[in-house]
Amino acid sequence: MSIKPAKRVLHLRVPVRPEEEAKIRRLAAATGLSVAEYLRRVGLGYQPKSRVDQEQVAHLRRLGGNLGRLGGLLKWWLADDAKLAEFKPLQVRDLVVDALNKIGQTQQGMQDALHQMGRR
User: Fold this and answer.
1) Which of 17, 47, 53, 97 is deepest in the core (most CB within 10 A)?
2) How many CA atoms does the CB half-sphere of 99 hold within 13 Å?
3) CA distances from 119 to 55, 72, 112, 113 (A)
C-alpha cells in the first residue's frame, strides 16, 4: 500500500514584469520543468540544472580542445622546415591565413554561445 502525497491546493501570487516572466519561462524550459515546478523548487532552495547549459558547455569544451589541437598542429607544421619546403612562400601564407581565419571564426562562435548562455 502506497501513501499518496497531499494534493497541492494553495496558490501563491507573485507579481512580475513582462521581461521577468519571459526569463522565468526560458529558465524553466531550459531545465525541462513547468513554470510552477521550477518556481516551487527554486523557492524551496533547489537549484535546477539546465540541460541546455550542460550540453553547450560540453560542446564548447570539445571546440576548445579542437582549437588547441589545431593550434598545436599548425605550430608543429610551421616548425618543420622539410614540410614547409614543399610549398611556395605564398602558398604557406595563404594556408596559414586560412587556418587562422577558421580558428577566429570558431572562437567567435564560442563567444556567441557563451553570450547566449549568459542571457538565460
Assistant:
1) 53
2) 18
3) 16, 33, 11, 10
